[in-house]
Write a structure and sequence with these properties.
heterodimer, A: 84 residues, mainly alpha, Arc Repressor Mutant, subunit A, two-stranded antiparallel ribbon, 2 strands, B: 658 residues, alpha/beta
Chain lengths: 84, 658
């Protein structure tokens, strides 16, 4: 099994990016690169975070917290694609 | 006719900078036909010859899963370009060369690699032997620092040479393991002597068919008909059965290994595997044990900072509102109106507004942590814990949002595919302390625990989060079972915060706090004042609020609290800040409140306020996003949980001598 497949398997197992980097002994930037490739292949899906949920909220004009901004990108494992 | 130069590459590799450098101001922006993807074209003039430069959408591969990929792929596939400039980022070569290999596999011969950001490689400890790279890949490689315009002239020269066939290229083809190569050969043979062979590279078609590329399947169907296609697909099915894995992943993975083996021939890392200081820091900050310790430490210091600088300002504001009330009182002759304005509006809204400095400082601290890049690391640590408690991975996002406000957090559960995941997340969501509850926690911690304010505040957050996880574990095990959906968080780079952005964001968020004080809290204060003064003033035991509170007092006594806490908590259902305004109206000043309660009672009240019924807006959001049944479940279990925790905390506190 190649590195790309192993990364996908570890993501499916719920390992974090730093765990994967440590387990496969590769730099974080390389894991990030593989995440981008897997996303472009449809195995991972970039998730919309905070801002859009706040935009849709009917209380946004009086909400004291607005939303927590989240700088990191979150990718969801697409089980349907992986099990096709 | 002008020769065409296509700029391909990953997103954010500096393609646009190179495009601008090549074309100057001679640009045209439109859309690609039939799609809303931006198409940029410009004119390059070199040695008296004009070239049309087309900037293709940035992609990581050419698998045609997105419109961008499809646009870029079709353009290259049709042979529309005389020269393809593949822009690659020298600092993250591996992922960039994946796209390069996909372009090579199309059978294109007119490729130049623009090796951008070469100036940053030294800082990252990467050494690239450009000449070796050129000979290994079989195409010209031009090192660039596009931002400074360095290497652009060399790139223009190479474009001119390749376009006019003054230099030849022999791009290296990715090699797969013998079994995969056999299948590629087999399918290629089946496609030979067909119309497709005249238009497309057969090896590329065979690889894409093996990968079950939908666009290529449609193409083959159009040219060869369903019978021939079914025969080929049947064979591919047998191959997949043999491998027991999807062929697209096997092929992509082997292509990746091939690139890895190539890179060893022209790339060297000065430190082990290119690990930077940032990578080392990430290993600590996301570590299952050290990460939690750092997280607790960071939040302790955040609260310490908030209380240290916020409490003196809060005291000053509280004093200012109180003095304003005293000054205004003699000027209002009508007794009822005076009571409403001074004892109702100013005491109630003022009590809440005096917490503005704390709210602002907390948002400021959070904005700094976000800007530095720490929050994403904290998210990784929290996610690991949440997973252990059986929460579906994706529910992490709504739970993070809940620290701001529970309403958008409930609405964000829409991102969860599984209905059961949505319900569990919605059920535990209100247990995460929102910023409204923060003002109540700050008020009680600040007033009653002068020395341990930060510790008290953090402890209430920890208890709430722990209970949210515990309830999630309970719900997913006994009430709603669902399959977990894994996800991964990509960590942003560490950055020095931009103070302008940080202050702007903190202000944007905290001004909503002021808005809320001027709307919901103001209305709530008027109602609370009325109920506390009619039909007779408070203290007689006959005002509406006392009667209401007295009804619940026997129950509140179990937690060491009285009727005033009951009234506050009841009004807190409208908006949590009303807990403070109610106390402000009933007692009149902070010192009176401090004299009326023990620190243990204050701690229990802070805990119960955090855990009991969510505010009415959150209940409405849960009902709208699920149904009345689940809204009722939330209200019921949270009353039960808050009561249980309140009773246990109070009696435990008594036993421990608090």
């Amino acid at each position: 099994m190649g590195k790309l497949e192993r990364v996908l398997k570890l993501i499916e197992e719920g390992r974090s990016i730093t765990d994967i980097s440590r387990d496969l002994d590769i730099p974080l930037s390389e894991v990030e690169g593989m995440i981008k490739i897997l996303e472009s292949m449809g195995y991972l899906q970039l998730i919309e975070t905070g801002d859009s949920a706040c935009e849709r909220c009917p209380l946004k004009s009086i909400c004291p917290g607005s939303c927590i901004r989240f700088k990191g990108r979150i990718y969801q494992f697409r089980a349907n694609k992986a099990r096709k | 006719m002008m020769k065409v130069v296509a700029l391909a590459g990953n997103p954010n590799v500096g393609k646009t900078t190179i495009f601008n450098n090549l074309t100057g101001m001679r640009q045209h922006v439109g859309n690609w036909p039939g799609v809303t993807v931006e198409k940029k074209e410009g004119i390059l003039e070199y040695k008296g010859e004009k070239f049309l430069v087309v900037d293709l959408p940035g992609t990581y591969s050419l698998t045609a899963h997105s419109v961008d990929e499809l646009v870029a792929r079709n353009f290259l596939l049709k042979g529309s370009a005389n020269v393809v400039v593949d822009v690659v980022d020298a600092t993250v070569l591996m992922r960039n060369l994946f796209l390069t290999m996909e372009i090579f596999e199309m059978g294109l011969k007119n490729i130049i690699i623009a090796l951008n950001k070469i100036d940053l490689t030294e800082k990252k400890g990467i050494e690239i032997d450009v000449r070796k790279m050129e000979s290994v890949l079989g195409v010209p490689v031009v090192p660039l620092n596009a931002k400074e315009g360095i290497g652009i002239e060399e790139l223009k020269k190479r474009i001119y040479e390749v376009a006019n066939r003054k230099i030849g290229t022999t791009p290296i083809m990715p090699k797969y393991d013998p079994a995969v190569e056999r299948e590629i050969e087999h399918i290629s043979r089946a496609l030979k002597r067909t119309e497709l062979a005249e238009k497309y590279n057969l090896r590329w078609l065979a690889i894409k068919l093996l990968m079950r590329d939908e666009e290529v399947i449609k193409l083959v169907l159009r040219y060869l008909g369903s019978e021939k296609l079914n025969e080929i697909m049947g064979h591919i099915g047998e191959v997949e059965e043999k491998y027991k894995r999807a062929m697209d992943l096997i092929i992509a993975s082997q292509k990746y290994e091939f690139i890895d083996s190539l890179m060893h021939r022209f790339v060297r890392y000065k430190h082990e595997q290119g690990e930077t200081f940032s990578d080392q820091l990430d290993r600590i900050l996301t570590h299952p044990i050290y990460g939690i310790l750092v997280l607790l430490g960071v939040f302790y210091f955040v609260f310490k900072f908030v209380f240290l600088f916020g409490m003196p300002l809060q005291g000053m504001l509280d004093e200012a509102f109180s003095s304003f009330g005293q000054w205004l009182a003699p000027h209002i002759l009508n007794e009822s109106l005076r009571g409403l304005v001074v004892d109702g509006i100013i005491a109630g809204v003022g009590a809440v507004l005096s917490f503005f400095p704390l709210v602002f400082l907390l948002f400021l601290a959070m904005a700094i942590l976000e800007d530095v890049g720490y929050m994403a690391r904290a998210a990784v640590v929290m996610e690991k814990i949440m997973r252990k408690f059986g929460l579906p991975g994706k529910s992490f996002i709504p739970l993070v949002l809940a620290f701001g406000c529970n309403v958008p957090a409930v609405m964000a559960t829409r991102t969860l595919d599984e209905e059961k995941d949505r319900i569990v997340t919605m059920l535990v969501n209100p247990l995460i302390p929102c910023s409204a509850r923060l003002s109540v926690i700050s008020f009680l911690a600040g007033a009653f625990f002068k020395k341990n304010q930060a510790f008290v505040a953090v402890s209430i957050y920890i208890i709430s989060i722990f209970l949210a996880l515990l309830m999630a574990c309970f719900f997913s095990r006994f009430l709603v079972k669902g399959e977990s959906s894994p996800f991964i968080i990509e960590l942003p780079e560490y950055l020095v915060p931009s103070w302008k952005t940080v202050i702007l964001h903190s202000w944007e968020r905290s001004k909503e706090f002021v808005k809320k004080a001027g709307t919901i809290i103001l209305a709530g204060s008027i109602v609370i004042w009325y109920l506390s003064n009619y039909p007779v003033p408070i203290g007689t035991g006959l005002s509406y609020s006392e009667k209401l509170g007295m009804f619940f007092e026997p129950y509140m006594k179990l937690m060491g609290l009285d009727w005033k806490a009951a009234v506050s908590l009841l009004f807190g259902i409208i908006a949590k800040e009303n807990v403070i305004s109610t106390y402000g109206i009933i007692y009149g000043s902070e010192s009176a409140i401090v004299n009326a309660m023990t620190p243990l009672q204050a701690y229990v009240l802070a805990l119960v306020t955090t855990l009991y019924i969510p505010c009415i807006a959150t209940i409405g959001a849960i009902r709208a996003e699920s149904n009345s049944k689940w809204a009722l479940v939330v209200v019921t279990y949270m009353i039960g949980l808050a009561s249980f925790v309140g009773i246990v905390a109070y009696h435990l506190g008594l036993v421990l001598g608090f």
